[in-house]
């Protein structure tokens, strides 16, 4: 049995750094994962005027490094679309933001129309010139905003903008991911007035926010990836330091597939002696099955007994990794947003290429189970979201090395 500790959540860490732009006072963040997306968001807020010190052990201190700037560097937004959500804090603090539109990526066009629509409702003037968004607002006004889709990033961006707006903002049909709730918890420690009901988030704007100390939640997607590593290799893995109720959808599907799970409050152990059973998956906003576990789950199902169907409802094209699984011997057909998987007895190692973070994780899982060696190119994508994955898997008994 191997043991691994969950890292801090990438998708909680990134908005937490953006939220530090909302105050002049020092902010202390704990359990920040050592991943390249964190390096990118730190570069972003540093470029915007913050000073960030790594105090070791995943703790970072963010202080003022001079006047807050209104312009975000293109190269940082280009390589990580999540950094687009600095537009809300900058508009709230400075009344102005100049942010490049993020490019698309392998999982879809990833527009930011819901971010911009919400900011316009709050009174921002927004123009787009040569791929750059120029946003200005005398002072953002608290308004009622309906999100056509419960977008995680748009919800986080608009909450941050609303914390310093004049009056109350109500966001209906918001995202309810644990990472959104973690951002809200941090903002409340900073003095933001935020209330949650089951259908909307209400933010009463305040004049200014103070600093805060906040430990971010564990990464449910990383934890789920390691549980699937046990499932696909027939091993036994205990993932510690998790919040198990963030993983109810995955837990249900692993149990349906015949994986043995021991569930405690802060750890989950997965073990698998038999060949697992096929199951059907439909990705959905939280608490539905996470789109970020779709690719790792497909790798696991490629070796399950029977036919599985995966429906990806969150992103329009998140199957780029399937061609790579097929190179390893998987039997998968995709039609639109549906992948039909027929489990095979075994996979055979070969060269494959990682298209994005979760696609890369899926290829590692498949490589762990495949006969022979699998080489994964562009593995840098994986390091964007997984701390020290080679050493963590080696400690679990995997034969994996970085070349
Ligand atoms: C966040 O991305 C996560 N990233 C993603 O994780 C995750 O897959 C996604 O939420 C869904 O859970 C971070 O939190 C940094 P969305 P985000 O806005 O905010 C459409 C990973 O691997 N949409 O909820 O960009 C969009 O195109 C990454 O860790 C609009 O149409 O996701 C997509 O189809 C990948 N207009 C859907 O909503 C908008 O203005 C969900 O996107 C915004 C989004």
Kindly describe this structure:
With 403 residues, the chain is α/β, with parallel strands linked by helices. It has two domains: 8-215, Alpha-beta prism (UDP-n-acetylglucosamine1-carboxyvinyl-transferase, Chain), CATH 3.65.10; 220-395, UDP-n-acetylglucosamine1-carboxyvinyl-transferase, Chain. It is 32% helix and 23% strand. It has helices at 10-19, 36-47, 74-79, 87-94, 113-121, 152-162, 178-189, 220-233, 248-256, 294-301, 322-327, 357-369, 380-383, 389-395, and strands spanning 2-5, 27-30, 50-56, 59-64, 96-100, 125-129, 132-136, 144-146, 168-172, 193-196, 200-204, 212-215, 236-240, 260-263, 267-271, 281-282, 307-311, 331-335, 338-342, 351-353, 375-377. The strands form six sheets. A four-stranded mixed β-sheet has the order 1-13-15-14. A four-stranded mixed β-sheet has the order 3-4-2-12. A four-stranded mixed β-sheet has the order 8-9-11-10, covered by helices on one side. The longest helix has 14 residues, at 220-233. The radius of gyration is 21 Å and the shape is globular. The model has no long low-confidence stretch (mean pLDDT 96). The structure holds ligand EPZ.
């Amino acid at each position: 049995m191997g043991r691994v500790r969950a890292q801090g959540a990438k998708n909680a860490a990134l908005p937490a750094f953006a939220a530090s732009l909302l105050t002049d006072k020092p902010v202390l963040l704990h359990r920040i994962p050592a991943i390249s997306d964190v390096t990118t968001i730190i570069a972003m807020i540093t470029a915007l005027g913050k000073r960030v010190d790594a105090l070791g052990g995943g703790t970072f201190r963010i202080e003022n490094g001079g006047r807050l700037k209104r312009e975000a560097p293109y190269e940082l937004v280009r390589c990580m679309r999540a950094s687009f959500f600095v537009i809300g804090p900058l508009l709230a603090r400075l009344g102005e933001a100049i942010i490049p539109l993020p490019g698309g990526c392998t999982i879809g066009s990833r527009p930011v129309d819901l971010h911009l629509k919400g900011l316009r409702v709050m009174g921002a003037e927004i123009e787009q010139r040569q791929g750059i968004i120029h946003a200005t607002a005398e002072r953002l006004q608290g308004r009622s905003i309906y999100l056509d889709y419960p977008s995680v990033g748009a919800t986080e961006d608009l909450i941050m903008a609303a914390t310093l707006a004049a009056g109350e903002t109500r966001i209906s049909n918001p995202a309810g991911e644990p990472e959104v709730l973690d951002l809200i918890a941090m903002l409340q420690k900073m003095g933001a007035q935020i209330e949650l009901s089951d259908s909307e988030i209400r933010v009463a704007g305040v004049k200014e926010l103070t600093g805060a100390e906040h430990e971010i939640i564990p990464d449910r997607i990383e934890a789920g990836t390691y549980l699937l590593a046990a499932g696909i290799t027939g091993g036994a893995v205990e993932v510690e330091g998790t919040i198990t109720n963030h993983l109810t959808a995955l837990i249900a599907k692993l149990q349906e597939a015949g994986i043995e799970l021991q569930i405690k409050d802060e750890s989950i152990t997965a073990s698998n002696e038999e060949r697992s059973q096929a199951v059907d998956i439909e990705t959905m906003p939280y608490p539905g099955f996470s789109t970020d576990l779709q690719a790792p789950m497909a790798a696991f199902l490629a070796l399950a007994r029977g036919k599985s169907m995966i429906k990806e409802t969150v992103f329009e094209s998140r199957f780029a990794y399937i061609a790579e699984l097929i190179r390893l011997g998987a039997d998968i057909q995709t039609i639109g947003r549906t992948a039909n998987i027929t489990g095979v007895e075994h996979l055979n190692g070969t060269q494959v290429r990682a298209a994005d973070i979760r696609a890369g994780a899926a290829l590692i899982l498949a490589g762990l189970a495949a006969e022979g060696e699998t080489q994964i190119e562009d593995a840098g994508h994986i390091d964007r979201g997984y701390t020290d994955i080679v050493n963590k898997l080696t400690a679990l008994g995997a034969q994996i090395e970085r070349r």
